[in-house]
Every structure is written in C-alpha cells, then in structure tokens.
C-alpha cells in the first residue's frame, strides 16, 4: 500500500508535470449561489438564431463584444448562416482571434442546423463539417475549457426556443464541467421555461434505481436539489445505504430488484400510494459489472449483467408506458458507457448492454415524443468511484488522463447531465447520448 501511495503521489507531483506527465487543471463545477460562469459571454455569427441567442443570454449572462480585449468565459457562435462549404472560412475568421482571449474553464458552444433535416446539399455538408471543427477545438483548449456543438431543428425560432435555452444554460455553466466535445440535438418540440431556473425540476416525481450508493445516490441528491421528489430504489440487501440516501434527499426508499417481473407495477403503486400521482422521471442507473474475457466467461456472469443493465430498463419502461403510469412530459434517462461505444477488453457482457442502452434510446425516442416526453442517456467515461479507486495505480492513472481534460470525472458530473435531461424545459432534447468523459480518446 505504501508503495502504491508513493507512486500515485509521484505521478501527480510537480516533478512529473515537468517531465511531461499530463496534469489536469482544476474543474470549475456548479455551486449554488455562484454565477453560472466566471466571466462574460461573446455571441458571434450571423445566422437565423443570432438575435434569439443574444436575447436569451443577455439576462443570465454578461455579454461582451467579440472585438473587446477583455477575457471571456463563454463563446456562443451561430453557425446556422454557414450554408456552403466555401462559407466555412467564417469559423476561422471569427475563432482565430478569440482563442487567446479565453479564461480557464471557458465554454465554447457552436450552434448549427441539424444536418439530417436539411434538404439543400451544400447546407447539409457545411452543417456536418461543424462536428469536426467543434471536436477539434475541444482538443486544442487548455485549462479545462470545453467546446460543444448544438444542432437545432430548422423549425426552431424564438417562439419555441426553450429547449435551446435549457441546453445553453447547462453547457454555459459548471454543470457541464466534464462534458466536452459533444454533439447535442434539439428538436422543435415546444417546452415551457421553469418558474425558477434554479429549481428546474420543481413539481417532478423521479425514480432513481441503484440509488443506495455511488453515482445513483448522487443523482438522487442532484434531482432533489433541483426541486424533484425522489423515489430511491435499490436491492433489499442495500437497505441501509438506500435509507440513508432517501433520508438525505427527503424522499422515499423502495427496496426492489429491478429484474423482478413486477418491478414496474411496484414502482407505479409506490408512486400512487406515497405521492398520489404518476411518475415523471425514470433514471435507469442500476447496473453491475462481471468482467471476464469472453473465452473464460460463464453464463451466470453474462446473464446477470444483461438482465440488470439492459433487460430491466427496457421492460420496466415498456410496462410503465403500457400501464399509463407516467405523468405528463415524462423523461426517461438511461446510463450507457463509453464501453458501449468503443468496446472494452474483458467486458463483452457489459459493453453489449451499454450499447443496447443506446439502442433503447433510439428505439423509443419517437414514442416518448408522441406523449410529450423525451428519452436520453449519459455515457460516463473514467469517473472517480470506489471501483476505479481499487484499480492498480498504472491503469488508473492512464485512465484518468486519456481525455482532453486530463483527469477523471466525479459522480456529480454524471448527475448534472441526468438532471439536465430530466427537466421539462429539456423535453425538446430527445434521443441524445451525451458522453460525460472529458472528451475521452476512446469512442466517437
């Protein structure tokens, strides 16, 4: 243990930094009562949404002219006006002088038109090019600055801008500290802004599975912080931890095995009996790993991971939909993983289920939209948990640094993204898989 501690200290020392070992810059995360950003925001571009973006941001943020020499903590660029490949030089003309004016932990958000919804060939090509630009910029940024791309449905204007505003408020804040190089699509679904953006989940009843500890417990805490009532779910054997979480969030504890064929019925009954209402948010966080090389894996390991990680979320959601147990504007949130995007040695069972979660989201997005709801998933990368803390020093330290932010994420980073998806203001955000991985070098 002493040797391991010494090696870890050495890897994270100033000496190691001088030798070229990457050392992540501290992330500025959200804190209640603090400004969303620690500096002004520049709005650039000349597209169809520029005025709407300016009007939306000038309230919660201080706006700054692009040509000013003052450091800026945020840049929002409207690229919807780029409709030909020849116009892409606009990106260079605007961003080249901006890059040296950014503060630490700055936020860059590029706004484009959803390529799949564009009929004009030139405009579609130009819109798709924005992905390579934004992801490359994200890899060039330093001191924990991030860059994202938001694709906006061409039917969106100021009359149905709430989904864009909810997304901007998430990305232009410490809530997205470990989200980097991502692409988020916003549909033209109409949504209402919350009465209080500091409590965007007020009036919502949420279910969080796997809530006894780790990421699940923090998700429950974050949803409660944002105004939701929370039903905390975990297996009966985790009763003590489950009760602690429920007490902390002033919610209720429901000991339940998610693989129980009657799980959905028990969730709906609990909501009706204890809260007198239907369920608004379901976070399918419960999951396990049982790692082995495929050649050495037994059926029990495969089946346990499959049933808990994938089959249970699918069957519970289907049953809740069929029994009309979900409220208005329901939000379903799955937990995928970069292992489901890029694969991982020794995790064929786990990677299969986490890719299946992506299929789960894609398959149900139209159905959820049809009842005024949405379904999305988070895909965590290297998150600091008890599991990663138990890893050997070498693999753990490599895992921490294999991303643009050169550090591991925290459980709160996953929880913040879940809370963003869960808000009614985000119901236009549908069918997305957002990686919470610091722009990991693994996956797309």
From TrEMBL:
Pfam families associated with the record: adh_short_C2 (PF13561)
Q: Which InterPro entries match?
A: KR_dom (IPR057326), NAD(P)-bd_dom_sf (IPR036291), SDR_fam (IPR002347)
- Spell out the coiled coil positions from the record: none
Domain Ketoreductase per the UniProt entry, residue ranges: 204-381
One term of GO molecular function: oxidoreductase activity, acting on the CH-OH group of donors, NAD or NADP as acceptor
Q: Gene3D superfamilies under this entry?
A: NAD(P)-binding Rossmann-like Domain (3.40.50.720)
The record ties this protein, via NCBIfam families, to: PRK08261.1
Report the PANTHER family cross-referenced here: 3-OXOACYL-[ACYL-CARRIER-PROTEIN] REDUCTASE [NADH], SHORT-CHAIN DEHYDROGENASES/REDUCTASES FAMILY MEMBER
Family stated for the protein in its record: Belongs to the short-chain dehydrogenases/reductases (SDR) family.
Q: What name appears for this protein in its UniProt entry?
A: 3-oxoacyl-ACP reductase
Q: Which organism is it from?
A: Corynebacterium liangguodongii
Organism lineage: Bacteria, Bacillati, Actinomycetota, Actinomycetes, Mycobacteriales
């Amino acid at each position: 243990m002493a040797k391991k501690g010494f090696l870890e200290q050495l890897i994270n020392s100033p000496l190691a930094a001088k030798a070229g070992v990457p050392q992540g810059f501290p992330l500025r995360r959200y804190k209640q009562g603090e400004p969303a950003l620690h500096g002004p925001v520049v709005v650039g571009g000349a597209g169809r949404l520029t005025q709407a973006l300016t009007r939306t941001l000038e309230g919660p943020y201080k706006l700054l002219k692009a040509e000013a020499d003052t450091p800026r903590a945020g840049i929002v660029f409207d690229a919807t006006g780029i409709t030909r490949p020849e116009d892409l030089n606009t990106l260079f003309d605007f961003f080249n002088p901006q890059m040296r004016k950014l503060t630490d932990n700055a936020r860059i958000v590029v706004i484009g038109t959803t390529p799949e919804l564009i009929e004009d060939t030139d405009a579609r090509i130009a819109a798709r090019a924005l992905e390579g630009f934004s992801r490359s910029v994200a890899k060039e940024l330093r001191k924990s600055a991030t860059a994202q791309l938001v694709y906006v449905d061409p039917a969106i204007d100021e009359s149905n801008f709430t989904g864009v505003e909810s997304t901007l408020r998430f990305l232009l804040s410490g809530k997205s500290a470990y989200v980097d190089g991502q692409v988020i699509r916003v549909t033209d679904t109409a949504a209402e802004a919350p009465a209080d953006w500091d409590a965007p989940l007020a009036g919502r009843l949420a279910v969080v599975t796997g809530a006894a500890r780790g990421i699940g417990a923090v998700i429950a805490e974050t949803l409660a912080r944002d105004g939701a009532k929370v039903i905390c779910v975990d297996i009966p054997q985790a009763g003590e931890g489950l009760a602690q979480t429920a007490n902390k969030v002033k919610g209720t504890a429901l000991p339940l095995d998610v693989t129980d064929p009657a799980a959905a019925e028990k969730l709906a009954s609990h909501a009706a009996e204890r809260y007198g209402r239907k369920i608004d948010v379901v976070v399918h966080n419960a999951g396990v790993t049982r790692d082995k090389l495929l050649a050495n894996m037994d059926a029990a390991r495969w089946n346990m991971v499959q049933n808990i990680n994938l089959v249970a979320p699918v069957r519970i959601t289907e049953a809740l939909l069929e029994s009309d147990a979900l409220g208005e504007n329901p939000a379903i949130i799955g937990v995928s993983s970069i292992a489901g995007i890029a694969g991982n040695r020794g995790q064929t069972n786990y990677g299969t289920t986490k890719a299946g979660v992506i299929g789960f989201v894609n398959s149900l997005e139209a159905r959820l939209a049809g009842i005024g709801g949405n379904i999305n998933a988070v895909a965590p990368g290297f998150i600091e948990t008890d599991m990663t803390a138990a890893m050997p020093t070498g693999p753990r330290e490599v895992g921490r640094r294999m991303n643009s932010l050169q550090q591991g994420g925290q459980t709160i980073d996953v929880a913040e993204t879940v809370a963003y998806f869960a808000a009614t203001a985000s119901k236009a955000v549908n069918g997305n898989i957002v990686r919470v991985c610091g722009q990991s070098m693994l996956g797309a």
